[in-house]
Design goal:
Radius of gyration: 29 Å
Largest sheet: 6 strands, mixed
Mean pLDDT: 81
Distance between the termini: 93 Å
CATH topology of one domain: Glutaredoxin
Number of helices: 12
Shape: globular
Strand content: 5-15%
CATH superfamily of one domain: Collagenase ColT, N-terminal domain
CATH architecture of one domain: 3-Layer(aba) Sandwich
Helix content: 55-70%
Structural class: alpha/beta
Number of strands: 8
CATH class of one domain: Alpha Beta
Length: about 325
């Protein structure tokens, strides 16, 4: 989950009032964050919490380090900076920190705040999903924000969801529906804002994930060139402009890319539909055979029994022969 200046457009306050509000937010954040204790640190992350559970958080930190190392290896860029992760143990405190940002943030288990450059997550006992997957998802938001200017929201969520392994079977079913009825969910329109309706969130996440997979798997050479250019900018001490890097690497505009992805999504929808129907047929075949055998056996029971031939008749028949 990403929040910041790109995720929503707010009311434009007068400059003096805006500076005052930002100062108050910064002061409160400093006071609040001062109560945290550093419970885990590595070359890539720092984990803070109010009441650190050393053994568990060490385990989480080490597992997260392994996943981050694998992710960075796939991207080919290894930041020197460390991501700061704050674990919020108090559910009321988490709700207060996320209040007013956006409904999707308020209902989330964690989010990356690009204004403060930190990751906040609920404590493990409040989270039903895989906790390391959650933290890796938010780390990837931090990673993208470190490397890019104006990376679209679909790229943020697509890359984060794909590499944190948060694409379940139910989301593929949503993609099947979306790809046939509303291909790609109009990702171009949602480049910098989440869908307003809650029922559209899962469709946005899976469509974003499939768009990133389309970038990577259908255009592997362009994908490698894309990240090579980002790496050059990072080594030069600057962020990459997403639109410019994308156009140079894929030799097309984002609008053209979305048009091609929309057509691809519709084709994929038909393929998934065929696969789904075939899978259902294969799954139901044993039950069909059992029902057929049961009906055949029932019919056999209804047939009249054949009369038995007496032994004397058999002996007489053998004598005649």
């Amino acid at each position: 989950m990403l929040i910041g200046s790109r995720s929503k457009r707010g009311f434009l306050f007068p400059a003096r009032l805006r500076r005052l509000l930002l100062s108050l937010v910064f002061l409160f954040s400093c006071l609040y964050l001062s109560g945290f204790t550093l419970s885990y640190e590595s070359a890539m992350i720092q984990i803070y919490s109010h009441t650190p559970q050393s053994q568990y958080e060490q385990h989480v930190g080490q597992s997260l380090d392994q996943r981050i190392t694998e992710f960075q290896k796939n991207m080919g860029i290894y930041p020197a900076e460390k991501a700061k992760i704050y674990i919020i143990g108090d559910e009321k405190e988490y709700r207060r920190l996320s209040l007013g940002k956006a409904e999707i943030v308020e209902l989330s288990s964690g989010f990356y705040d690009s204004k403060e450059n930190i990751i906040r997550a609920r404590s493990p006992e409040q989270v039903k999903e895989n906790y390391v997957n959650l933290l890796l998802h938010e780390y990837i938001h931090w990673y993208i924000d470190l490397l890019f200017y104006n990376a679209p929201l679909w790229f943020h969520e697509g890359l984060a969801t794909f590499h944190s392994q948060q694409v379940g079977y139910e989301r593929y079913l949503i993609y099947l529906k979306e790809s046939l009825i509303n291909p790609s969910g109009n990702l171009f329109r949602l480049s910098y804002s989440y869908p307003e309706r809650k029922q559209d969130w899962d469709g946005f996440y899976i469509s974003s994930t499939m768009a990133v997979r389309f970038m990577q798997e259908q255009h592997s050479e362009n994908w490698e060139g894309f990240w090579a250019r980002v790496s050059l900018d990072y080594k030069a001490g600057k962020k990459a402009h997403f639109n410019r890097i994308f156009s140079q690497s894929y030799t097309e505009t984002l609008w053209d890319f979305h048009a091609r992805f929309t057509a691809y999504s519709k084709r994929q929808g038909y393929i998934y539909l065929v696969v789904l129907v075939n899978s259902l047929i294969i799954a139901l075949l044993p039950f069909v055979m059992i029902i057929a055998a049961y009906k055949r056996r029932k019919k056999m029971k209804l047939l009249p029994d054949m009369p038995l031939i007496a032994e004397e008749q058999i002996d007489q028949q053998e004598t005649k022969d």
